[in-house]
Amino acid sequence: MDIIFLDQNKWIDLARIHTGKDKAPARQALLEELKAAVTNGKVIFPLTVAHILETSKRNDPKSRAHLAEVQTALSKGYVFRSRKARLLLEMRSALKRLFSEPEIELPQHWAIVPGFMQAFEHFDEMGAQPNEAKRTRFLNQHIDPKVQLYDYLVGQDDTSRRAAHQMYASESDALVTRIEDRRKLWSTVTPAVRERAYAARLFFDHQGYVAHELEAIGHSVDEMKALGGSALIQFMAEVPTFAIEVALSVSLEKQSRPIHANDIRDMHSFCSAIPYALRLIAENTFVTLALQSKLDSRYGCNISTKLDDLSGLYI
Q1: Calpha distance 11→249 (Å, rounded)
Q2: 263: helix, strand or coil
Q3: Which long-range contacts (CB under 8 A, 24 or more apart) does 17-21 make?
Q4: Strand partners, 3
Q5: How far apart are CA 78 and CA 113, in angstroms?
Q6: Distance (Å, rounded) from C-alpha 73 to C-alpha 142?
Q7: Could you tell me what percent of the chain has a pLDDT over 70?
Q8: Structural contact between residues 82 and 49, judged by C-beta atoms closer than 8 angstroms
Q9: Residue boundaries of the structural domains of the chain
Q10: Interatomic CA distance for residues 139 and 148, integer angstroms
């Protein structure tokens, strides 16, 4: 089964086809082809936490429902695992290689899971507290993931929905401010030095995760330190979420335009999808950054900007 990531704007394009606003015969045929391919188990279009939040925050109930309908149909309620869960397992795999130990055997699509709640750290079975993990398993056993997703996107209490998104927007704005401050601080630094500095910052921000995973495989922080600086560089390069974030962040910060909250969401979605999707279709800005960083060849992900690239693939 192929895994395909679509940027939110591409989902909006599909919703326009779904509702008949885009009546082009080729586009109508494309949507029907994709629906049939999902039904036949040839492909699936998982969502990220950014998709869920972006759709949920649409204030027009009719528009939100139309988008939810097409997202539910093509994702079947499946999502990319939360950032924390992906990171922990990616770290463990990288540490195993660092200590020349046997690789962890993982299912092919381990990062794609049912139940929209698993896109959020607190409900992802792989990283949640036992009670929350149990709740997620219970929901997935008794309620179709498609039903869970659609009900969440269209059935939330409006006051609670707006309050949650106001809080999320405030957090995003604060993160953008921190990035812009760092951008000014590093304005005279070469891209190569920026990459090393950003990677070092990510490592120190996640020291607790690293220590946890070292303990899980029977090693200590001191043993990792004894391997030297080159081991740290190797480790960061072999954790896909870190490597992609470093590459995209440095490329983004080199641009002269202001950084927006949407940029942060796009970057995190690319970190979720590129290592685990066969295809990624998104807007030009981040596609260009990803291609310039050669993330497509590095992770075997076909990256493009056109929905029409999917036409005929699953007939």
Answers
A1: 24
A2: helix
A3: 18/66, 18/69, 18/70, 19/66
A4: 44
A5: 5
A6: 19
A7: 95
A8: yes
A9: 2-310
A10: 8
Q: Tell me the backbone φ, ψ of residue 105, rounded to 5 degrees.
A: -85, 120
Q: What CA–CA distance (Å, rounded) separates 139 from 225?
A: 43
Q: Residue 50, Cα to own-chain centre: how many angstroms?
A: 8
Structure pTM? 0.90
Number of residues that make up the chain? 315
CA distance 210 to 137: 27
The secondary structure of 107-142 as a DSSP string is: -TTTTEEESGGGGSGGG-TTTS-HHHHHHHHHHHHH
Interval 89-144: pLDDT, tens: 999 999 999 999 998 888 889 999 999 999 988 888 887 788 888 888 888 888 99
Confidence label for 168 from pLDDT (cuts 50, 70 and 90): low
Instruction: State the sign of the Cα–Cα–Cα–Cα dihedral 299, 12, 26, 76.
Output: positive
Enter the DSSP assignment of 259.
P
